[in-house]
# Entry
Amino acid sequence: MEKFTKLTGVAAPLPLINVDTDMIIPKQFLKTIKRTGLGKSLFHEMRYDDEGEEIEHFLLNTPAYREAKILIAGANFGCGSSREHAPWALMDFGIRCIIAPSFADIFFNNCFKNGILPIVLPQEDVDKLMDDAERGANATITVDLEEQVITGPDGDTIAFEVDPFRKHSLIHGLDEIGLTMEKADAIADFEAERAARTPWLAGA
Amino acid sequence: MAKTLYDKIWDSHVVHEAEDGTCLLYIDRHLVHEVTSPQAFEGLRMAGRRVRHPESTIAVPDHNVPTDVNRAAGIEDEQSRIQVEALRKNAKDFGVEIFDVADIRQGIVHIIGPEQGLTQPGMTIVCGDSHTATHGAFGALAHGIGTSEVEHVLATQTLIQKKSKNMKVEVTGTLPVGVTAKDVTLSIIGETGTAGGTGHVIEYCGEAIEALSMEGRMTVCNMAIEGGARAGLIAPDEKTFAYLKGRPRSPKGEDWEKAVAYWRTLFTDEGAHYDRVLTLAAEKIAPVVTWGTSPEDVLPITSTVPHPEDFKGGKVEAARRALDYMGLTPGMRLQDVEIDTVFIGSCTNGRIEDLREVARVMEGHKVKDGLRAMIVPGSGLVRAQAEEEGIAQKLIEAGFDWRMAGCSMCLGMNPDQLAPGERCASTSNRNFEGRQGYKGRTHLMSPAMAAAAAITGRLTDVREIA
Ligand code: SF4
# Structure
């Protein structure tokens, strides 16, 4: 997994609530057996017209936000399906951090597994950053994960919370499967105890 | 200390707990489908890892599979075919059992789990699919996971998790005639909003929930995720045990007795703590439909289309956008909304009881001329049972297209899709923009309500028909 320590980039405002995973990456792009190449299909139905041409005024099609690395969004971002294609598409486009008042659980979790940092902030802080993000190419924001601080374009700062284990994994780009495999003995012990307690589950 | 059902299942699956509360949770059952697993198996291959417990894992293709009766023709769409072939190869290479396209047991992953007895009380169940919540109807802790986690479970049979909060949703009393499990679950989402359950595991209880069949309970838990909760739970009871008895993968003989004895301990203790409680009176629940593009946009069928100004905050703009997308005018009667298509199926409502209900409403009626009406059984076995019971024949005579099992038009990853602007009365679970086809318009409802709409060609109050 790609590490995340400190990120500076343009923040794009997406002031919609309940942005669902079908909006982030529609189903026709879930047929891939790869993790890469989904960036061009990110927000497909909002981004392209019926002929497949870019819709000029859609935010991520405008010159100022094409290079956006941060997304400021409305509440309940990422609701809907468990498709990891959603963070894969965001990542492939170049988005490494999403800031919103709330996220759907599975999406939130999937972000961390892919080197994307989702940050939950109170509505008023999100509103403030949303205003900042309206400034186009000047909407440069810095997100410092180690210090847990966001610095806005005018130098003002906002602190944020993050789960310590997830922070550690992101900063070091850890392979969680490898970490868990180090606990193989504990898993084997659990399995032995489980076979005694609920024998019908062993080998089922 | 008094524990909730969720606490009990959680506690019995913790392999390791770190100081900050991050747990390694043991997973009893892993269901795998073709869309969210290829990258996970690829990850295993690249790291030289194997599947720790192939016997606890089961694979089935469902999302991409065409539902045309002629299955022998194969899958025309190249990408869909590659994805299904990848699942087949991965299952073979890693020793995982697969219910392949030609197998009568093939069907939607959340239908086949319970049907085969793979889903049992007290288990932890995961699948790379958000509607895994369905299995909670058996008192199993079941939730959707992303592909990275699919890989993690394949490799280690565990998941890294932090415990969620407990939420109780109690539905008291008796449901009025014409009101079904789907109306209950949609009405709950109408109350809580799509983010109301975020961070929680919901336990559904109360007389009205206990009175539901296992099928109905699955419909309720299926949509826990639409209310924001990763998992929904219902305590197992005699109905649960009766449903499971004799299923191919249910415990047998002495094991069955032991299992039932254990399952009887799976309930919330008196006085256990819930972080949130919501109570609904069954008597107040009406047959409902959705009008917008979020499952929380739900109203009784007797209502009118709302005005965006009726809402607050970000919802005003969301409602405006939804009405525009749905092509609806505020103030119009929901019952005057004309439809083009009826879709009966999905993991929410593709079980035998749902098909029986449709047949009951259709008795003496026909699908309105010019409507496209399709029934997609949730599994090959549901289809076979409906044929055996004579329901299939009746539905075909009434004008329905009787199809093979799969996800079908619940999300058009297969050839079953809405055309732009087409409007559908659907028994599925999501009315998101483009969900059933590019620019397609979805109204969610119960199978009975979808059947009523099939008869009249517009959104209809089933109580006026049957
Ligand atoms: S039927 Fe629909 S919701 Fe259920 S698993 Fe298939 S696509 Fe997902």
About this structure: Residues 6-161 of chain A form a domain with the Aconitase; domain 4 fold (CATH 3.20.19.10). The first strand of chain A starts at residue 6 and ends at 14.
